[in-house]
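Lecture 7 notes: from sequence to structure.

We start with a single chain of 588 residues. Read the sequence below before looking at the structure.
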Amino acid sequence: MAAAGSSLIARVEEAEGASFGYLLPDCFVSLHGGIFAVGLALARNIDDHRNFKRYDHPLPAHSAFIGHWEGHALWIIIALPVVTFGILLCTCCLCCWCSYTVTRKAVTNIVRRVMTRRPCQHGLACGSREEAHLAKWSHAFDDDYGFAVRVHGGRPQFFTLRQCFNFMDPAQIGYVADPLPLHELLQATRRWTFMDRAREALSSWSVCEWCDLLRHGFSLERKMVSDIWNEMNTDGNTHVSFPEFVEWASSHGQRFGFPQPVGIIGEKGRAGDYPLPCTVAGCSCTNFCANGRDKLPRNSGAKFCESCGHPMGFHAAMPGDQILAVLPRCWSLHPCNNLKAPVDLVHFAAYNEFCLVPCDSDTISQVQQLMDASAKATWTRDRGRNSSVPSGYEVVRVDRNENVKAWLKYYLQKALIVEALMDAPIPQYRMRTSQLVQTLPMMDLTRPDEAVNEWYLWHGSSSKGAVRIAETEFKQALAGSSTGTLYGHGSYLSDSCTKADEYSKEIVDGKDSGLFCIMLCRVMGGQVRYTDEVAPNAKALMTDVLEGEYDCILGDREKCRGTFKEIVIYQSSQAYPEYLVYYRRKFE
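Now the structure, written as tokens:
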């Protein structure tokens, strides 16, 4: 045991670049090595017996099978012996309730295990191109891989951040509502396990740390995971989205062994604007090639690269290439226009820049057209009993918001929604600004995509609040603090500048004294949950978005009350405050 402990210490010293054995007598080294080995063995045993049972409910396909006659038949077959046994031997008279409780979970587990593919035992080393093999086994690049590992067990392997997030979100809702899946992901990467804490404590030669590990090891671990969760949840909506996870992992992922590639191809990737190199260790392929072309069609059926032979799922763009491709070329902060731009753009945090750029007279004129087209002389109680509705608005100046981190998060969220809706056409909803933004020259480089309900909408705030939102994005934790939450705690926007003007505050000092400020935001609507109810159920609507198939709420108050449409998002990365508009109110 002493020899094993000494060799283990040597390996730890080699890995961590530290050496302390030469300072101690051999007997102490042997004794400490033995304790070290026993402690790590026990810790490893604890880790190996942990499993991923947090997500134990079935996927929609499994629920559909259980609700079908075949699922009912399976339920009856399992329930009959339980009921018979209860009637003959049990005296509690709760046989029906007991059989229902016991068999419900049994049927669910059977269906989950039978209908879920097993993870490929070769992991990232699998090079099979056989259709039968790819159909039978789940691989790291498959959408069901995270769920397969949870159902059948095993140690998951990831090479993109998308796969890491899918492990926490096996149903692929788009949100994670609990820190526990994050804890499981950190355990799965073997960078946040009880064994790691044991290694730190046992190598410290501190009896106090040893005792602290034995008494509070798991609770301290949970607290640290909770701190990481709160750091991820930047918008304060109690749910962590994929863009929030990527933002955090870009800065801290290396510490926990997370991969660098994001794992989203996006429209620009399919157009060939950035390469998709192979991530298989030792492969020199620099870009995925299908049918002799570097560009991928929108619904590419190609599964293998003609250059290296590896599946398309093993190819992923590097973050730096994606960042350079998706930043608007007209921005002053774009690396091609900014001499101070860093060379290394691999991490989000490496290029965390923000500035407000004054727009020229042409842009001011076009924003004036948008305000004129979206104005509506309608009063609501949010404006105030003694306040009248302006007859028009005069745009004085416009600032373009160049926030690299917020734009990248928005673009990433858009890519996710576009990918989810690629094969499923959705109802399109037009706003007051929809027709005009398709023709304005200021939108030429980044024109909104109507097919997935991408709009330009207005949001009202004080001038200081607008600048703060432009710098730090919308904060869902502050939603409704001044105007209420008819559709739940989210960010409220409208297609009418008149509605946004209700919440704007007059600037009383400085060069903008007497002006008002509202924001023109680019919003990704996606799958819209439409409602024209006078008194909507806010909790149910939020559940439809945060736990269902929808991406935003469209409250049609124009139809039910004759006022304005209200669009509500519960995730900050779905809206990008692109322009800050300073204007005067006009009254006839």
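Residues 207-232 form the longest helix (26 residues). Keep this in mind for problem set 3.
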